[in-house]
Amino acid sequence: MVLRYQDGAEYELDYRDLRLGCPCAHCSPKRGGEQAQAEFAEEIALLAREKPHVSPVGGYALTFEWSEGCNSGIYTFDRLYRLARGEDGDDGRPYIHGAW
Q1: Which of 64, 70, 79, 95 would give a disulfide with 28, using CB separation of 3.0 to 4.6 Å?
Q2: Which residues 6+ apart lie within 8 Å of 40 measured at CB?
Q3: What distances in angstroms separate CA 27 from CA 3, 5, 72, 88, one per listed residue?
């Protein structure tokens, strides 16, 4: 996926990296530590590599619909920007009991 910004910046975000950064309550806990994240990456690697259907969420986010796997994550534009730059989409915060 290519993200283009008004200032001319352009970033590529691999769909697998997008899935690894899913902010939903099901996927987020799977990034809770190095071992959990490695297992989650293996799980994502087994899914079909595909272009998802993209839908806007208000004026602040996008959601992605995959033929298999999670479809409930709402990605804010800020989160997409951080993921595309290779930054931590969770902004360093641990996922604890259903809340950031």
Answers
A1: 95
A2: 20, 27, 30, 31
A3: 23, 28, 9, 15
Domains belonging to the chain, first-starting first, are 2-84 (3.30.2020.30)
| Tokens linked to 48 | 């079909």
Phi, psi dihedral angles at 5 (to 5 degrees)? -115, 160
Q: For the chain, 100 residues long, give each residue's pLDDT as a single digit of tens.
A: 999 989 999 999 999 999 999 999 889 888 888 898 999 999 999 998 899 999 999 999 999 999 988 899 999 999 999 999 999 888 887 776 555 5
Strand pairing category for 2-4 and 74-76: unpaired
